[in-house]
Design brief:
By secondary structure, the chain is α/β, with parallel strands linked by helices. It folds into 2 domains: 102 residues, Rossmann fold; 133 residues, NAD(P)-binding Rossmann-like Domain (Rossmann fold). The protein has 10 helices and 10 strands. The strands form 3 sheets. Strands 5-4-6-7-10 form a 5-stranded parallel β-sheet, with helices on both faces. α1 packs parallel to α10. The protein starts with a helix and ends in a 7-residue tail after the last helix. The structure holds ligand L34.
């Protein structure tokens, strides 16, 4: 997919358009710093114009909104990403609504949420669930008529994931169950999934006995657990017990190296899509 992107970028540059992304990070959440660094590097590798803006933890909502006004008006910038979570004095909903929907490459603006919800292909699809859908499609895993069980109902992953799997078309047409923290007997639900997608942020929450034999398991969780034997002091584990799951599942994504890198790739895709909307038509 990165190679496909390189071709797309070359075509756009031939038309005088260099995809441009602004990455905004407020505060010093260590995981966010890692993700943002990876995104900026991916932009560099892909030949994008990019601007990364770091704001201190005490940034006011007004300061952030002023920055977004500037980025919304900047013609070099086709995509704007405000890394979440934001410090608590800032109202995330207001911030996400202040990104121009045409530059909302995260797909978090209500206009894009609505478009994805009604199956309008012009809406930006949030990078993580979009990446999961591409993983399934490009691994030849049929979703049509299958029972997909999504664990987690966040706005970033669970809800848009369910919307994408429900859409009519490739990577869609699944029967979808969404589980969450108030679901009674969650194992009873997860065991029904031909495709099990887990995004709840609880280390190794899904044990082998919660998985249907032969299922495809997509582990969206990236959790840091203490590990004194590592130089960093921690290691990464998913929301799924990988060892147990491999005994039961027919396919599974690892953590790290699974959904995370796909998320970054789809962010680049969405930025190219955004840039195309500004490029002169070839016919
Ligand atoms: N606005 N906020 C906004 N957009 C997003 O799309 C995100 N997300 C989530 C958190 N906040 C966001 C991300 O970028 C999660 N996320 C993300 C992106 C990349 C990776 C994980 C989460 C990733 O590449 N993880 C590596 C391991 C990285 C490490 O060493 O910690 C992996 O291989 O899974």
């Amino acid at each position: 997919m990165r190679a496909e992107l390189a071709t797309d970028v070359a075509v756009l540059k031939g038309k005088g358009v260099t995809p441009g992304l602004a990455v905004v990070l407020v505060g010093d959440n260590p995981a966010s710093e890692v993700y943002v660094r990876m995104k900026v590097k991916a932009c560099d590798d892909a030949g994008f114009y990019h601007e990364s803006v770091r704001l201190r933890t005490a940034t006011t909502e007004t300061e952030l909104l002023t920055l977004l006004d500037r980025l919304n008006a900047d013609s070099r910038i086709h995509g704007i990403l405000v890394q979440l979570p934001l410090p608590k004095q800032i109202d995330s909903t207001r911030v996400l609504q202040s990104v121009d929907p045409r530059k909302d490459v995260d797909g978090f603006h209500p206009v894009n949420v609505g478009r994805v919800s009604i199956g309008d292909p012009t809406g930006f699809r949030p990078a993580t669930p979009y990446g999961v859908q591409q993983l399934l499609l490009r691994s030849g895993i049929e979703t049509r008529g299958k029972h997909a069980v999504v664990v987690g109902r966040s706005n970033i992953v669970g809800r848009p994931m369910a919307a994408l799997l429900l859409q009519d078309g490739p990577g869609g047409n699944a029967t979808v169950t969404v589980c969450h923290s108030r679901t009674a007997d969650i194992g009873e639900q997860t065991r029904r999934g031909d495709i099990l997608i887990v995004a709840i942020g609880k280390p190794e929450f899904i044990s082998g006995d919660m998985i249907k034999r032969g299922a495809t398991v997509i582990d969206v969780g990236v959790n840091r657990v203490d590990d004194p034997s590592r130089k960093s002091g921690y290691r990464l584990v998913g929301d799924v017990n990988f060892e147990q799951a491999t005994q039961v599942a027919s396919a599974i994504t690892p953590v790290p190296g699974g959904v995370g890198p796909m998320t970054i790739t789809m962010l680049l895709y969405n930025t190219v899509q955004a840039a195309r909307q500004w490029a002169p038509r070839s016919h």
